Every structure is written in structure tokens, then in C-alpha cells.
Automatic annotation (TrEMBL):
It is an enzyme of class 1 (oxidoreductase). This is Benzoyl-CoA 2,3-epoxidase subunit BoxB. It comes from the Bacteria. InterPro entries: Aromatic_CoA_ox/epox, Benzoyl_CoA_Oase_BoxB, Ferritin-like_SF, RNR-like. Keywords: Oxidoreductase. It comes from Actinomadura montaniterrae. The gene is boxB. One of its GO terms (molecular function) is oxidoreductase activity.
Length: 472
């Protein structure tokens, strides 16, 4: 397989698409539908061109090219990481067998389902973010939004390639459906709940790219372990691009917290809303919401489906190769979050059944690193306030805690208590209206909205005041 992409083709790729004319024709017939979806459901702000990176290579060094590109001419393509001819399945009943290059018949339905669910999230976030360009706080931020959008579009291509190449007519039909479902639609919503939520402002966008794209990182990480080698190699390359999306979220929240802290010190007040910034308690409420919604994406604490995926070699654990066990887990156990005698606690289950909890814990630990980072900004400013991750039982709609209410500190509440107190923990209509009121576009070079600090660094060595986006 070539490492670098063939850009002479109608669909850039490094999978030798020209050698399979039938597959090439099928994907070329899907391409106009994708472009039509992008025109109708993608970014609404008119632009001449945007300073974007385009994947041109899958090697470890220098895999992307930067340049001004008209968005509609962006070269979405199909890229798989380099193939390891000696790769073997690392876990489950097929541990030690050569990785599959074709779909094993007995696992066809399960693999197709995993690919469809992953594929469905990619266009969903583009749809959720389509109007954000109109309120961008700077050209730098506008460019990052569009970079995230085009790469989510490319990740859709990655999953559609697998559906077309390995799943026959059913795969082609599923690829069509990925364009027919729409985020928040009453008739045909996206499959997972978080991808039907609105992203109406930039604080929501930064929280989404920090928390929800981080869920994507962990899901891709489990699929990268898959015994189905084309899926593994696809996800390995997607993870390279996903890192940028989380950086946008991490540094975006950094800059919101930094600006809020500056104004709190300067004016000796917690109430920075009147000063045109976002109060820390509102930042915490947005964090509470996006974190709890993202925890739901990992599914129930216990799952026989995930146990079966693992045993079959379809979906591994995060960093499977670094685990110091037998990679079979048949005799192992794990403590999972649960309601125990009506109280928030833990219970012991078979390790295979608790794999969702194992993955969620990796995610929670990773999320905490961002909170620590934002708290360092507050500490460096000399402020006593701190942000925190709420309890895993807070505001949950999936899993062990879906049927109860709890405070962010993990104390059980009655339904009446929750109704009386939830506005202290989740964004209210007043909070959302204030945040939206700050969302006035700043589309001049080198200028930035007053509610957010400028970034420490520009893109690809360029300064902050570079012309990242030329507006139409």
C-alpha cells in the first residue's frame, strides 16, 4: 500500500482505488451526494478560501500539507495507515491469529454495526456546528472550526470506504443512510444522543471538542485494536487528525478561563458577566453538561455486546498491547459503578462484561488532565476558585444511574429536589442567553472578541494575525 496519497484521482486515496474499478465507480457515485450534503448541511458562512491542512501522507513525519483552499474544493480522501504484514490479533478467542484482511462471515453484522455507528458521528458534528462561523471570535478560531469540519467530513469518507469496499449492497445502503440522518431531526436523528444536541455558541463548541471528541478518541482507540485490519488502519490514521480537534477544545477553554480570570483580578469581582465575559460558574455548568452527556456515549456500565466484541476480536481495550494480563479476561473481574441498595456505589462483575467501564475510566482520567490544566490558570492568576468533574452519577441518561438524580458531588436526590436545584448545576436559559449575547463575530485580522484570550501560538508557525480565512 502506498504511504502517500494519489491526488491525481477524483477521490484522493492511498488504497490503490484505481485497481478496483467497481469500487471506484461506487464511491464516485456517492461523492456527489456527499458534496450535496456538505452544501446543504455544512458550514453556512461564505468564504473564499481557508488556511487548511490536507492529509497527503500517512507516514510518521510530515503527513499534512498546509495552504489556502476553497472549502468546496477540499480534497476529501481515503487514507489508511501503513499495513504491517505480520500483524496478529492481540486479544480474545482469535488472539495470535493473523489479522483479517477480509470480513469474517460470522462477524459481518457486528462489524458493519460498529462502522455505521462510528460513521454516523462524523457528519453529525458538522451539522451541529454549521452556524458557528457567523459568530467566530477571531479568524484563527474560524479556521480551526473549519479544519475540524473538513476532517470530520474526511472521517465520514473513511467509514464509507469500509462500508463500500467490504460490505456489499448492504454497506452501500448504509453509506447512503449516513447522509440522510441529520443531527436533531425529528424524523431521522443521528444514532447517539450527544450528536443530536445543539452547539449554539463557542463555549459549547470548545466543550464539545474537548469532551465529546475525546470520547471519539477512545472509541477509535478500541477500534484500532480490531482484528479486522482495514478498520484498524483506518482508525489509526483518524486518531492523528482527531488530536487537533481536542487541542481546539483544550486551548479554547484555556483561553476562556484565562480571560475570565484576568477580568476577575482586574475588577476584583466574580461577576464578570457585566464585563462581557463568561463567569466561572457558567463555565462549570457547561462543563457539567457536556461531560455527563459524553459519559453516556460509553453505554451501560455492563454490556454483553461489548464482551462479545472483545472475545470475537472486533474491538479491543484502550492501549491493549500495554495491558499486563492474558488478553482473554475469561476469569477476571472488575468493579463497576452501580446502584447498591439504592446508593451510588460499585459492584463486582466479570471483566469482559465491564469493558465499557474500563474504557470510561480511561476517559475520565484523561478529562481530569484538562481540568487540572484550567485550574493551573486560575492558580497562576492567584484565584481560589477551581473547576471540577462532576460525579459519574450526575445527569446521566444511560446506564446504572439513568433512573436516579444526583448532585455533582454524588449525593442522591429525589426528583423534586433535582427540579428545585438543577439550575445551580446545568446551564439555564439565562446562562445560555448571556453566552449567546457575547457571540458577536470578529472577522478582522489580529482582532479577537473580548470574552476570550488570544492563543499562545498560531497555526503551522504562522502568527495570530495571519489571514487564516478569506471571507466571501
Amino acid at each position: 500500500m502506498p504511504v502517500s496519497a494519489d491526488y491525481s484521482e477524483k477521490i484522493p486515496n492511498n488504497v490503490d482505488l484505481h485497481e478496483d474499478r467497481r469500487l471506484q465507480r461506487a464511491l464516485e457515485s456517492w461523492q456527489p451526494n456527499f458534496l450535496s450534503w456538505w452544501e446543504s448541511m455544512g458550514p453556512t458562512l461564505p468564504t473564499q478560501d481557508v488556511y487548511l491542512r490536507t492529509a497527503v501522507n500517512v507516514g510518521r513525519e510530515g503527513w499534512a500539507h498546509f495552504g489556502h483552499v476553497a472549502m468546496k474544493d477540499y480534497r476529501w480522501g481515503i487514507f489508511l495507515a501503513e499495513r504491517d504484514g505480520d500483524r496478529r490479533i492481540g486479544f480474545g478467542a482469535h488472539k495470535g491469529e493473523p489479522a483479517w484482511q477480509k470480513v469474517p462471515g460470522e462477524y459481518r453484522a457486528e462489524l458493519q454495526r460498529l462502522i455505521v455507528i462510528q460513521g454516523d458521528t462524523e457528519p453529525a458534528s458538522v451539522e451541529q456546528q454549521r452556524n458557528l462561523g457567523a459568530t467566530a471570535p477571531s479568524l484563527y478560531d474560524l479556521r480551526n472550526l473549519f479544519q475540524v469540519n473538513v476532517e470530520e467530513g474526511r472521517h465520514l469518507w473513511a467509514m464509507v470506504y469500509l462500508l463500500h469496499a467490504f460490505f456489499g449492497r448492504e454497506g452501500r445502503e448504509e453509506a447512503e443512510e449516513l447522509l440522510h440522518r441529520n443531527s436533531g431531526s425529528d424524523e431521522s436523528p443521528r444514532i447517539l444522543g450527544a450528536f443530536n444536541e445543539e452547539t449554539p455558541d463557542w463555549l459549547s463548541f470548545f466543550m464539545f471538542t474537548y469532551f465529546t471528541d475525546r470520547d471519539g478518541k477512545y472509541q477509535l482507540g478500541t477500534l484500532k485494536e480490531s482484528g479486522f485490519d482495514p478498520l484498524s488502519r483506518t482508525c489509526e490514521f483518524m486518531l492523528k487528525e482527531e488530536a487537533h480537534h481536542m487541542m481546539v477544545g483544550t486551548t479554547g477553554i484555556d483561553r476562556v478561563v484565562e480571560r475570565t480570570a484576568q477580568l476577575m483580578i482586574e475588577h476584583d469581582t466574580d461577576d464578570v458577566a457585566a464585563l462581557g465575559a463568561i463567569p466561572l460558574d457558567v463555565v462549570q455548568k457547561y462543563l457539567n453538561f457536556h461531560y455527563s452527556v459524553s459519559l453516556d456515549l460509553f453505554g451501560s456500565e455492563t454490556s454483553s455486546n461489548v464482551a462479545n466484541y472483545y472475545t470475537a476480536g472486533l474491538k479491543g481495550r484502550w492501549m491493549e498491547g500495554r495491558r499486563k494480563d492474558d488478553h482473554l479476561l475469561t476469569g477476571d473481574s472488575i468493579m463497576v459503578d452501580a446502584l447498591v441498595d439504592g446508593e451510588i456505589g460499585q459492584t463486582e462483575v466479570a471483566a469482559l462484561v465491564g469493558l465499557n467501564t474500563d474504557l470510561r475510566r480511561e476517559y475520565v482520567s484523561d478529562c481530569q488532565s484538562g481540568v487540572n490544566r484550567w485550574n493551573r490558570i486560575l492558580a497562576d492568576a492567584g484565584l481560589p476558585q477551581r473547576l471540577y468533574l462532576p460525579s459519574v452519577a450526575f445527569n446521566r441518561k444511560v446506564g446504572a444511574f439513568a433512573g436516579i438524580e444526583a448532585t455533582p458531588r454524588g449525593e442522591r436526590l429525589t426528583a423534586e429536589e433535582w427540579e428545585a436545584r438543577k439550575d445551580a448545576w446545568l446551564p439555564t436559559e439565562v446562562d445560555k442567553a448571556h453566552v449567546r449575547s457575547l457571540m458577536r463575530p470578529v472577522h478582522e485580522r489580529g482582532k479577537i472578541a473580548s470574552w476570550i484570550a488570544p492563543p499562545r501560538n498560531g497555526i503551522n508557525g504562522k502568527p495570530f494575525d495571519y489571514e487564516y480565512v478569506r471571507l466571501g
